[in-house]
Write a structure and sequence with these properties.
8 helices, alpha+beta, two-stranded antiparallel ribbon, Arc Repressor Mutant, subunit A, globular
Length: 203
């Protein structure tokens, strides 16, 4: 059994990304029926409390066998524990990681949701905001606003007269290094894609 300590990272979002990539790797040349996006989605679900395999499979849109494999792999690296009929829950390390990812919904601007994410110290000078935008778009997420606290913001597609309001809404994520504002409702898929896109740029 692989120790979770072998994938230690100082950055919460990078650590989450490492776990998702490790768990979704092909084994013996066989690709599992899930990808890093599903792993992150499952972790976010389990952060709310113990969750059973059937419910997780349905919420993530994957088969029961894929869900069983994913949960087993997460258990093998020591980041979740199974509690009988209650399902699986996160161990302390993973709970702390998820606590560093904050989702503030329905901010000052009507109809938007806010995803504020802590990133590691080394990325505080991040200036590739457009690269982050492109990373999000490549994963099917179209942001209204990306605010990097140390390097300004971009507002792809947002009219100039609403940018001030978007920034005001982002301030609800005070203390976050990156704030991504999306239009409409945010589901597990969108949140997972945002996390993966940011990790690709900052990790």
């Amino acid at each position: 059994m692989q120790s979770s300590g072998s994938m230690v990272s100082e950055c919460s979002i990078c650590r989450l990304y490492e776990i998702a990539v490790e768990v979704s790797k092909p084994k013996r040349g066989v690709k599992p029926g899930f990808d890093p996006e599903h792993v992150i989605g499952y972790i976010l679900l389990a952060a709310r409390g113990p969750i059973g395999r059937p419910l997780a499979a349905k919420a993530l849109g994957i088969g029961d066998t894929a869900a069983k494999t994913m949960i087993r792999r997460l258990r093998e690296i020591g980041v979740i524990e199974t509690r009988g009929r209650e399902g699986s829950s996160l161990k302390q390390e993973l709970r702390q990681i998820v606590e560093n990812i904050h989702f503030c919904q329905n901010g000052n601007c009507i109809g938007i949701n806010i995803c504020g994410i802590d990133v590691c110290e080394a990325s505080r000078g991040l200036s590739k905001v457009l690269e982050l935008r492109d990373s999000l778009v490549s994963r099917g997420v179209t942001p209204l606003l990306i605010l990097c606290c140390s390097s300004g913001f971009v507002a792809p597609g947002a009219p100039h007269d609403v940018v001030d309001g978007l920034i005001s809404s982002c301030l609800e994520c005070e203390g976050r290094d990156i704030c991504v504002v999306l239009g409409g409702d945010i589901g597990l898929v969108e949140v997972s894609r945002v996390i993966l896109a940011i990790a690709k740029v900052v990790c």
